[in-house]
Amino acid sequence: KIKVDEVTEPLEPDLLYPLLRGRDVQRWRAKPSAYIIVPRLPAEPNRVIPEQTMQQTYPKTYGYLRQFQDILLRRADAMVKSSLARGEPFYFYSAVGDYTFAPWKVVWREQASTMTAGVVSPHDGKPTVPDHKLMLVDCNSEQEAHFVCACLNSSLGQFVALSYAVEIQMDPHILEHIRIPRYDPSNPVHRRLAELSEAAHDTARAGDDKRLREIE
Hints:
The chain is α+β, with helices and mostly antiparallel strands. It has helices spanning 51-57, 59-66, 69-73, 78-85, 142-153, 155-164, 188-206, 209-215; strands spanning 16-20, 25-26, 29-30, 34-37, 40-41, 44-48, 104-109, 118-120, 129-130, 134-139.
């Protein structure tokens, strides 16, 4: 909500990832529409890249972020403030982990009146990063992601979500109330659900609502 200057500069592509926002997610559809700088490495997702390393390895990205240092240091978020106090770089932000860099994820909007689950895939050869308004489940494969998505978007999943969720808030605790078994590729029901979810995504992209209702 703080107004900042718009700056256009070239950056190293290494730390730039496709960003998925709430507006980018619909039922059976999730497509990133922006990019975000993630100052961490997939091999060490829980560790913010130190300033010295940023200056030496990613000088353009560091120079870009440095222009906003004063604003970033004034952030009121309690976790950010405590992290900065213990010596984290000024560009620190939380909620990044192994799940952030998982190639396949199931996501849904936190602010929604119904379950809006969709499968998000790598984009331009990089994992897509959901923003803080999206809930996510990181998955080991495309098939597993589609299986989980099918369960969440099913009539049973919708019913449980609506009976549990508070007004328009679909928080991650929903998964404590919807029992989704671990994906088993040898189970024909699991495979069929994954296939139907994949078909639903293809049909949603094509805009064929009649066929989508048949698949659902």
